[in-house]
Amino acid sequence: MQRSQPVATSRQNVQGPQTSSAQIQREIIVKIRDPVTIQSLRAMNPRNLKTYVERAVAQSDNENIINAKITSANQLKSGDLGIKTATHSQMQALRQFADDWAYRLGHGASIRNPTFGFWSMASVRIDNAPPGQADLPPLLSIRRERRSSPSVLLH
Fold first, then answer.
1. Largest pairwise CA distance in the chain
2. CB atoms within 10 A of CB 29
3. What is the pTM of this model?
4. What pLDDT shows up at residue 35?
5. Nearest 5 degrees, angle CA 18-CA 24-CA 29?
6. Residue ranges per domain, the chain?
7. Dihedral sign, CA of 9, 10, 11, 12?
8. 143 pLDDT exceeds 60?
9. pLDDT above 90 covers what percent of the chain?
10. Beta carbons of 94 and 102 less than 8 angstroms apart
11. Domain at 21-112, CATH from 3.40.50, 2.60.120, 3.40.109, 3.30.70
């Protein structure tokens, strides 16, 4: 009887690729609303997407962004475009002058503003604040609605 050789095992990273904060600070997300545009962008590979974005920026003729270096462009599962620039300042310039180039990427395309993990659950009208609410700490307020329990909001 012949013995089989032991199977070599290896450890794999189960967490997936890590995104550094420097990369996030250089990335712009462009919201694509038109389903036809989403499908046509899906047909492009990342290199063609990068060229497509570079052309949209170049056609803007805005001297503040004309030299912005696009390092990559990828389509997200949502259909939106993730665009990375060489520097943080280039990303800020593209964001600031988005009206000059983003619409060239597709009908209804707009820059998505980052939320940095903060979610707004509700809003508080200050002019109708209940008495005694001013006594609460400034970052914490309690609002009563038609529910039986109060909701806590962070500002």
1. 87
2. 16
3. 0.59
4. 92
5. 120
6. 21-112, 120-155
7. negative
8. no
9. 50
10. no
11. 3.30.70
